[in-house]
Amino acid sequence: MTVIGTGYLGATHAICMAILGFEVLGVDVDQRKIDALTAGIVPFFEPGLDEKLREALDSGRLQFTTNFDRAAAFGDVHFICVGTPQAPDSHAADLRYVESAFTELAKRIDRKALLVGKSTVPIGTAERVTGLVQEISPLGAELELAWNPEFLREGFAVEDTLHPDRLVFGVSSEWAERQLRAAFRPILDAKTPVVVSDLATAELVKVAANSFLATKISFINAMAEVCETTGADVNLLATALSFDSRIGGRFLKPGLGFGGGCLPKDIRAFAHRAEELGVGQAVAFLHEVDGINNRRRVRTVDLIRELAGGDLQGKRIAALGAAFKPNSDDVRDAPALDVARMLYLEGAVVTVYDPEANENAHRLYPDLNYANSMIAAVIDADVVALLTEWQEFTDIDPENLGKLVRHRRVVDGRHALDADDYVAKGWEYRALGRPVASRTISFVMDARDEVDA
Ligand code: UDX
Q: Which atom of ligand 1 is nearest to the CA of 334?
């Protein structure tokens, strides 16, 4: 099989497929990525993937190339894993990389093969691209297309690829289904549920899943807004809700909200596509989901300003975290960096530290200060802001941290710190959706953590 596009999704898919025993050729137009991967270096941070890459290379089953002629000759099944970023001038998905990958392959393929889209695309793309590739391929209608959406989470990419919750095969023929079943045989043998559908349903599963997750996060964050004006505590509320097995505790963590390369752009592209299809009203709530999410960032800045005495000008803020979530170096649409940027624009002296994402953050916002350790970031801080819940930050003893800062003031943007411990050690502690003199019930929180796990 070939895997076209060796970014986050493609590199992981290529490596894992080789681990599962297939002959895999990874393809990209970016020579630097191909050189790095060939040399056994994963060009982004993902726990456990480096080892898997080396294991796959050592097996002799994984190779990389920039040569599309070679790819077309090599594959029986071609997986298209290129990006679909948000278009520069609208909420639509930018499909130029998807179209280019499909057409570059299609015009070269001269024996029966299956093209499988894995990228997240607007509904109707697979059908449209089928027409496109069949027109230009020497095989004509013999060249078939399928859609196999990918649900992997950054930070758990290997686990999610090798042991997914489910597989979805969007196909137009029994032959295509057989090809996909063969391509995922080891995963299907492990009794992974598979849903075989038409192309449109397969496309929709992915955006519907991400919309649901985003909605769940924004739901609890909307409750946090209500808590802020009523004196209720969103943490206790989330805990109480999580024990209802119909609701569950996962993706119900309040705080700074969602970011990253998927959830924000996928819900926007979905709403945009639904409007194009004349069913915009059905998903109009996604605009509100996005709005709630963005307000959390602004409100976090408000909390930090309040704690800093009402004015951020010249205040030293330690921004702990830049990545959109822990165990990732991805800063695309990262709530943490957005908060740091807003603080900076109000005149604060912001020092950012992230265990893995400093370099990517610096490329995006070179005007912020970057520290190369947590300690360097918090020295003499007026306010410490926990923006991404890396374990390094949640493990620190508030007493030790307190010795480094100018003022013991902390904003916990992720409800990840032990509020009682901080308060006991003389810190002013604030978190979105929690009253100032917050009562925490730690045994209840422990129980919720188990529900999450
Ligand atoms: C997401 C989907 O989970 C995955 O299935 C899809 O394939 C790609 O998009 P990912 O972007 O890796 O994966 O991140 P995810 O773990 O879903 O977290 C998204 C964001 O939501 C993060 O910024 C995280 O901090 C935030 N989040 C998550 C919350 O604010 N609260 C929660 O309870 C859970």
A: 23
**CATH number for the domain running over 2-197:** 3.40.50.720
pTM: 0.94
Active site residue 81: no
The CATH T-level fold of domain 209-449 is Rossmann fold (3.40.50)
The alpha carbons of the chain give a radius of gyration, in whole angstroms, of 24
Between CA 155 and CA 356 the distance in angstroms is: 12
Residue 444: which pLDDT band, with cuts at 50, 70 and 90? very low
pLDDT value at residue 437: 63
Atom of ligand 1 nearest to the CA of 120: 7
Residue spans of the domains in the chain: they are 2-197, 209-449
Where do we find the tokens 């411990």?
Answer: 421
Q: Is-contact 422 439, C-beta < 8 A?
A: no
CA of 251 to the centre of ligand 1 (A): 8
Long-range CB contacts (within 8 A, 24+) of 247-252: 248/451, 249/448, 249/451, 249/452, 250/452, 251/213, 251/216, 251/217, 252/216, 252/217, 252/219, 252/220
Specify the pLDDT at position 257. 98
CA-nearest of 17, 65, 12 to 180 is 17
- Which position among 16, 81, 227, 262 bears the catalytic label? 262
Sign (positive or negative) of CA dihedral 155, 250, 85, 70: positive
